[in-house]
Amino acid sequence: MPKQKKKNTKEALSPTTVGGRIAESRSEQLWYTRFRIQAVVLLIMMLICYSNTVNNEYALDDNIVIVKNEFVYQGLAGIPGILGHDAFYSYCNLTNSANLLAGGRYRPLSIATFAAEQQLLGTVPDMDLDSVVQHAGLAGPQQDKLISDMHARHGFNLIWAGLLIVVILYFLRCVVFPHQPLVAFVAALLFLVHPVHSEVIANIKSRDEIMSLLFICLTFIATFRHLSTHRPIWLIAALAAYFLALLSKEYALNLVVLLPLSFYLFKDFPFKKSVALSGYYFAVAVLYFVIRFSIVGFNHTVPDTDVWNNPYALATGAQTLATKIAALFFYIRVLIAPWPLSSDYSYASIPYTDFADFKVWISLLVHAALIALTIWSIRKKQNIIAFALAFYLLNLFMVSNLVVDTGGTVGERLIFHSSLGFSILLGWLISLGAKYLKPASVGIIASSILVSVLCLLGTFLTIMRNPDWKNDFSLFSHDVKIQPNSLLLNANLGVAWINKADTEKDSLTRADDLNRGIVLLNKAIAIYPKCLPAYVNRGLAWFRLGEPDSALTNYDKLYELIPGFNQLPGLYYNLGVYYFLHRRYPEAESAWKRTLQLNPGNDDAKHALMVLGQQRTI
Predict the structure, then answer these.
(1) What are the pLDDT digits (tens) for 93-122?
(2) DSSP letter string over 352-388?
(3) pLDDT number for residue 298
(4) List of domains in the chain
């Protein structure tokens, strides 16, 4: 026994082992491997890539979660309302519509930060709240204040994104590449400059993506610190970070798999011990589900026939499954070749397909191969490959529509989490390639050139994409060229042109804007003949152009499609007023009678018919 012990001691202190440790120690002391230096470089790159987003206003779903959200305008006083309701509650309450998206949207944490910002920017008194929310977006001093506030919010978004990239760097150095700080830096850098992230950082609403990934990484960091120090404070921090990640977005549910997997791969714990150590996190996930379902309930469903919220509504079962499988390959394509980019890929941007389409089988085979490679890597303890692929696939599964419908087909923001797995794998492959090139100097130069080219290209494309997110008009005007068959883009750009007409002083320019809007709404209706918003706004455009009969045709179509549409009484009433003022009394009477048919308690229509009767007796 003593001889054996001596032998082990000699092996432990062999020149090769000692030399390797000294070399590793010296490598970690090089200035470009220091955490602070790397963090500063990443923050500088963040400013270079995204400082031009501060000039942006609001676009897309910003309108739902911020502009038309009464709780946000209340500041800190609105946070209890945010925590106690679905993310879209305020907007749906304002528009008298149900939250039609599957599963509800309980993501209060990012919206709570919007309320906290409002506390700094200036809250709205309760007496003015309804008016501000109702008229938000209309030209005037209130609109100017709103845009000024949005500039500030973009600044805050940049701070959150900067915090995220620093935490990602620490997570990679602490968990994934503990002895390869330079590889960790390259992976974080490649993640930062990827153009597909422009939507998340340039659009305020997508802060939920930033905060979700931020707290996921903090959960890993605190968990591994707890495993190293056994100090309870780190376990408490880890569980708190995990709960905040769940309150940010549902991706954190993946940690019930990724955490034990990381213990097995990076800590070399047995499988049973890895699962057992994750018990606390299972408990937190259960607590989250209890809170979530007590607030948003179980009854949120997507209408079977409404492609506006369910892009697969008109597809057969086989077409739905085939299209979902084919759509998954979009994410691989956009990670490898992220140009051109679009804010929307909903109906009918991605055509329905079936299992006779070779693209479906290519996507199926590629993802089956990725799953098989992940399993093989786990069994063979190929730690980096296994973790990177698992991180990619599990987060992709959350947005695949294969289990829970997201309300869309694909989306660039939806690949945000998975792209970290992609960046980890890419950074590791570049470092591996550099090691195989001989002499070593050639590998260093080649890998440096490759990373530099990727960074320059990614930075350029990101800077070019950010201004498109300035507002709805700029976004839809650009993206409809990329996705000309998108129902949402054509309809929303049509509405944007009509809204733009309201700000024009020149009558010819105003008429030109309205006609542009009508052309786009015509296309939206051609794509989907039951597009209610297109009929509403096309009718309004014709009304403003002084073509009441064309407006009436649109309103009658709305009545045919959905007689109970809540805006119809007001539309018919206003049309009756126009007819009356132009002495077209029979048409005015018909319009007001339709108003009363839809809303028997409408006193304005009753009075108008009485005045009309008096007018006829004169």
Answers:
(1) 877 665 555 556 899 999 999 999 999 999
(2) ---TTSHHHHHHHHHHHHHHHHHHHHHHTT-HHHHHH
(3) 61
(4) 1-33 (no CATH), 34-56+156-466 (no CATH), 62-155 (no CATH), 472-617 (1.25.40.10)
**DSSP conformational letter for 526:** H
pLDDT bin (cut points 50, 70, 90) of residue 381 is: very high
Element (H, E) at 80: helix 79-83
Q: What is the DSSP string of 206-247?
A: GHHHHHHHHHHHHHHHHHHHHHHH--HHHHHHHHHHHHHHHH
Sign of the dihedral through C-alpha 40, 46, 47, 49: positive
- For the four alpha carbons of 541, 547, 552 and 557, in that order, the dihedral sign comes to negative
How far apart are alpha carbons 404 and 102 in whole angstroms? 7
SS3 439: coil
For the record, the structure tokens of 338 come out as 């992220």
Per-residue model confidence as pLDDT tens digits over 200-225: 999 999 999 999 999 999 999 999 99
How far apart are the C-alpha atoms of 300 and 138, rounded to whole Å?
31
The separation between the first and the last C-alpha atoms of the chain, rounded to the nearest angstrom, is: 123
DSSP track, 471-506 = SHHHHHHHHHHH-TT-HHHHHHHHHHHHHHHTT--S
Quick check: 302 pLDDT over 50? no
DSSP structure class, residue 251: G
Q: What is the pTM of this model?
A: 0.91
Segment holding 164, helix H or strand E? helix 141-171
Q: Rounded to an integer, what distance in angstroms lies between the CA atom of residue 59 and that of residue 147?
A: 11
Which range is least confidently modeled, 128-142, 464-478, 523-537?
A: 128-142
AA identity, residue 582: H
Cβ atoms within 10 Å, residue 298? 8
Write the single-letter amino acid at 192. L
473 falls in which pLDDT band (50, 70, 90)? very high
Q: Tell me: cis bond preceding 586? Omega within 30 of 0 counts.
A: no
**Identity of residue 426:** L
Residues 6+ apart with CB under 8 A from 594: 559, 572
Sequence-distant (6+) residues with CB within 8 A of 586 are none
Cα dihedral value 26, 30, 36, 37, nearest 10: -170
By C-alpha distance, which of 7, 314, 25 is closest to 181? 25
Residue 299 pLDDT: 52
pLDDT in tens, 51-99: 999 999 999 999 999 999 999 999 999 999 999 999 888 888 877 665 5
What is the pLDDT averaged over residues 132-144? Answer: 82
